[in-house]
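Page 42, continued from yesterday. The earlier attempt failed because a stray header line got pasted into the input along with the sequence. Redoing it now with the clean sequence only.
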Amino acid sequence: MRNVLNKTKTESFNPNVRNSLTTLSRVRLSNSDDVRGQVSLNQAFTHYVALVRELGLLSGTKTMAISAIQFLRDGIGVISIRRSKRDRIRYPMLRGAPREWHRSIEAIVEKVDEGKKFLSVPLTIQNLSALMDRSGNEVDGAEVTIIIPAYNNFYEVAMCIESITSFASRTNYAIIVADDNSPDFNFTVLNVLSDVRVIRNKANLGYIKNVNNAAKNVETRFILTLNQDTVVCPGWLDELVAEMGLSEHNAIVGPRILNSSFDILEAGAFVYQGASASHRGRGSKADSPQFSFSCDIDYVSGCAMLVRTEVWRKLGGLNELLSPAYYDDVDLCLRTHALGMRVRYAPLSCIVHLEGTSMGKDPSDPNSLKRFQLINQTKVASAHSKQLAEHTTIDQPQSQTSHFTSGAQVVCVFDTMPDANRDGGSVDFELIVQYLRKLNYRVTALFIRPVHPEESITWRANGVYCESLNSQNGKDQLANADVVFSFGTMVGIRLAKEKLSGKRWIHHTSDVATRRLEAMNATLSNQQDVSAEASRWFIGMPRDVSKMWEIEKPTFEKPSITLFVTDHDLQYAIDHAAFGEFLQFPILKGGPDSYAIPTPLNERTVGFVGSFLHSPNSDAVEYFLQDMWPSIIAQVPDSKFLIWGSGVKPHQEANWSLIPGVEVRGWFADWSEVVSQTRVLVSPLRFGAGMKHKVVSTLIYGRPVVGTRTSFEGFEASLLTSEVMSDDANETIQSIVQILNSDESCTKALRIGIEGMGTQFSESCEIERLSKLLTDTLATAPKVSE
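This time it went through. Structure tokens are written below.
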């Protein structure tokens, strides 16, 4: 068959086809005389350039080498395609990166002059076959069947298939081209392709019956309807499947749909009373934050709709009473909602839709299928009248999500995108956002400092709207919040300037900065030589305790409720005449309900963990190396002191590494890296405030901790003996020596720490605690400042 096709004469392209696209991410325009892979394009095709970096195109382990993008037009507009001959190679997965659409990346659209271009069917098949051979897709293991209902316009369908097969996918798929008895017989040649099956109807059935006919024998987990006038973007299918997998109640998922100018056509859609509908975000920029997070939605367009096959079967597919086309997607989604299932919008999945090329654009045109839009709206309104009566009218549009979205709006405010390696407050912030989503609250994350969209990719994929506090969208979110939840001293100072009177405002202190400053000044007051790291303070904040308290005190008093990590912090606020609704609220760790006691590590290693952007940690290491480590290594000569954490300065690493037995390990990716090499953690903090994440984390992962009273704040101190908690350097030395030399002492120290820690750090306990906090807050009238 392929040999016959290669002898076929080059055919002229149907001049009625307009505005299709072809991917240029692996295409090179050249004025070379080399004609290998030469393709001429019809004037109707609009080309788009992949808006991603090369590595961004390659996700997962099934990847292909892609040639660099270059654009050189020759005199007659011939395109020379030169793909890399390398085998598939492995790159680190950059989840979401290729799906980001930023204003900083220019969308290049090249229009080909009318009347000069044509396509070759044999060459098109040859190129598609080569792409499929390199794609790594395994049809036999397909999870998704992609149904492309087709009528004429072979090259448009070919370009759609080309875009599907051009990018590596973690999700295996099969493609069905449902040829609705087209006069164009070229579709039959697609059967030679390994990933494609063509079903040709004996008569023209219309869109709805055509899709149902193609889907009747599908056995994959998911069915995906995809219009022939679409071009998919890298990662589109993986993101749809990932969104579906977030909940067993997710039944239908749709992507972010863009036009050829890369503006939003649809970010999900609304249905109103009377079955009138509107596309969410239409005309907005593709990177608009308010349309960049996943959410429940009324319906998604059938031009790209992923459906659980079991739900498709239960509902009987598309409603054939609406034949030939239109409003079938609205009807299917409304019936899905009636089953108690969810329809979701997946913003990290993008497709480009050349709206109107497949079915027309004008509902009043008697020759266009678009006329059935008005006819079928009436049918759907009648069939779902009871359900639609609960919807708003079209002049009361929903701003962001659907009529099915429930739960109060909680706006969480943090300084910048949280980084658990930088500070413990980031851990609290991340877990609270995660728990709020589990509790079905609608969550927005606002940041004071600029946050790049790629940094928030995972959050947005899980339904969190991420925005800058200083943007107008951010201010609108703050104004519309049911609850404002802020974290940390600097954020509290910033929000104290906002008009939050009359708002339910929860402020999580993380720690009391003035108390930390006071302790730091007292500890370092008698030292002659204090390093810059040891004396570091909040940028721009005063070193004078009274002035700092004057700034910090209002951040405790203005919120509706202020959370303190430990009773020590809470009591400090009360003792210094702060008045407000105060609550002791321990740090969050997401730990298990019970903790195992593992066998002690054989290596005689002492570890320290901490971010060296914070002065208490630098001071603790200096104190330990000077006052304790020499005695420890003298008694246990083969012992090592491993220093873990981010922000180690070059001179610190150089100086500490010169000390016998000391190894600076720096940043670590996962706690398992620390606990697999550390027998006991030391935490000789002399100042600081709040419970220490590193102490709790170490105990949860099964390693004992020896530290000062400052390190164990928030624990049940009466249960912590001097074997694990002491401010006396000699007692700490002897405890560490015993733990290094005795498995019995090591296990005993771990048991003491876990008992003192209690059970409050399990995920179930933490979610229950947060649920009660939000329930109580929402049941209380907002605080009005005088």
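Notes: Confidence is low (pLDDT under 50) at residues 1-118.
Reminder to self: strip header lines before submitting.
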